[in-house]
Write a structure and sequence with these properties.
This is Putative auto-transporter adhesin head GIN domain-containing protein. This protein is mainly beta and about 300 residues long. The chain is about 0% helix and about 65% strand. It is built from no helices and 27 strands.
Length: about 300
C-alpha cells in the first residue's frame, strides 16, 4: 500500500543565509530501498533513524514528490506525473550537472534530497535521476540504473546485483562485494570491485561497458556480445568467457589460474592463465593468451585465431 509523504505538512523549515540553500524536512518512515525517478539528486547516509531533508536555493519546494511504497522510498517530481502515471509525453533536458532542469520546456527547481536510515538493501535510479548511496553495509544489495539514471555507491555487501541499461551508469569503485551478478546493456556503464573468492557472473551486451577490479581469487563467468566492452584486472581462480558479435573482453591484467574462452563473430578476447587454457576461436574471433599455461586445448575455425604471448 502506498502512503504519500507529501500529504503531510512539513515538520521543520530551517532558515539559512542567502548564499546557502533553504531546507525543509519531511516525515520519514522506515525503508530499506530508495527509488529516484526523474531529474533529481538524492544522497543517502546511514543513520540510526530515518530522515528526509530537501535543499532548494530559492525556497521553492512545490515540485518535490515523496512517497512510501512498502519498504521503498520513492523520490521524484510532481511535474513528471499525470493522471495516467509516470512520464507520459514528458521531455526532460538538464544542464550543468542537473542544476538547470527543464521539463517540457519549463524550468523547474533544482533539489538535493538528503535521506538517512539504518538499513539500505537496494537502490534504483532512472529517467535522469542521480542517486548517491554512501556507507552501504548489506548482506544482499541490489542496484539498478536505467534511462540515463546515475548511481554512485560506496560501502560493502556480501553479495550484490548491479544492473545498468539504456545509458544508465553505476559507479561503484568504492563499493565492494564478495559475489556479484552484473548485467549491463544498451550503453549502460558499470565500474565495480569484488573482494572475495566467490562467483562473479557478468553479462554485458549492446555497447555497454564494464570495468571491474578483483581483489580476491574469484571465479568469473562472463558473457559478452554486440559490441560490449569489458576490462578486468586483479586476481581470479578461474575464468570462463563467451564472446560474440564484436564484443571486446580485455582480461590481460586479471591474473587467473585456469581459463576457458570461446570467441566468435569478430569478438576479441585477451586472458591471462598460469596453468591451463581451453580456447575456441571461430568466425573471425580472436583470442590472445598470456601467462604461459602448460596445459593448452586450442581450436581455430572459419578465420578464428588464437595467439600466445609471454
Amino acid at each position: 500500500m502506498k502512503r504519500p509523504a507529501t500529504c503531510f505538512a512539513a515538520l521543520i523549515i530551517l532558515s539559512a543565509p542567502a548564499a546557502i540553500a533553504e531546507t525543509q524536512s519531511y516525515p520519514a518512515e522506515s525503508f530499506s530501498q530508495i527509488e529516484a525517478v526523474g531529474p533529481i539528486d538524492v544522497i543517502y547516509e546511514p543513520a540510526a533513524a530515518p530522515s528526509i531533508v530537501v535543499e532548494q536555493a530559492e525556497n521553492d519546494f512545490s515540485d518535490i514528490y515523496l512517497d512510501f511504497d512498502g519498504d521503498t522510498l520513492i523520490v521524484s517530481r510532481k511535474c513528471i506525473r499525470d493522471r495516467s502515471g509516470w512520464f507520459n509525453n514528458v521531455n526532460i533536458n538538464t544542464k550543468n550537472d542537473r542544476k538547470i532542469i527543464k521539463v517540457n520546456g519549463k524550468r523547474v527547481p533544482y533539489y538535493i534530497v538528503r535521506v538517512s536510515g539504518p538499513d539500505l538493501d537496494g537502490v534504483v535510479s532512472k529517467r535522469s535521476a542521480k542517486l548517491t548511496a554512501n556507507g552501504v553495509d548489506s548482506a544482499s544489495f541490489d542496484a539498478h540504473a536505467s534511462s540515463s539514471g546515475d548511481l554512485f555507491l560506496s560501502g560493502t555487501a556480501k553479495s550484490a546485483k548491479l544492473h545498468a541499461s539504456s545509458s544508465g551508469d553505476i559507479l561503484a569503485s568504492d563499493f565492494q562485494a564478495q559475489t556479484f551478478d552484473i548485467q549491463a546493456s544498451s550503453s549502460g556503464d558499470i565500474e565495480a570491485k569484488s573482494n572475495g573468492d566467490g562467483i562473479v557472473k557478468i553479462d554485458v551486451s549492446s555497447s555497454a561497458d564494464l570495468d571491474l577490479e578483483s581483489l580476491g581469487a574469484a571465479e568469473f563467468l562472463i558473457k559478452a556480445s554486440s559490441s560490449a566492452d569489458i576490462e578486468l584486472s586483479g586476481q581470479c581462480s578461474s575464468i570462463e568467457i563467451e564472446a560474440s558479435s564484436s564484443a571486446d573482453v580485455d582480461g590481460r591484467d586479471l591474473v587467473c589460474r585456469d581459463a576457458k574462452v570461446a570467441a566468435s563473430s569478430s569478438a576479441d578476447v585477451s586472458v591471462s592463465a598460469s596453468e591451463s587454457v581451453e580456447a575456441r576461436a571461430s568466425s573471425g574471433g580472436d583470442i590472445y593468451i598470456s601467462g604461459s599455461p602448460a596445459v593448452r586445448d586450442i581450436s581455430r575455425s572459419s578465420g578464428g585465431d588464437v595467439d600466445f604471448g609471454s
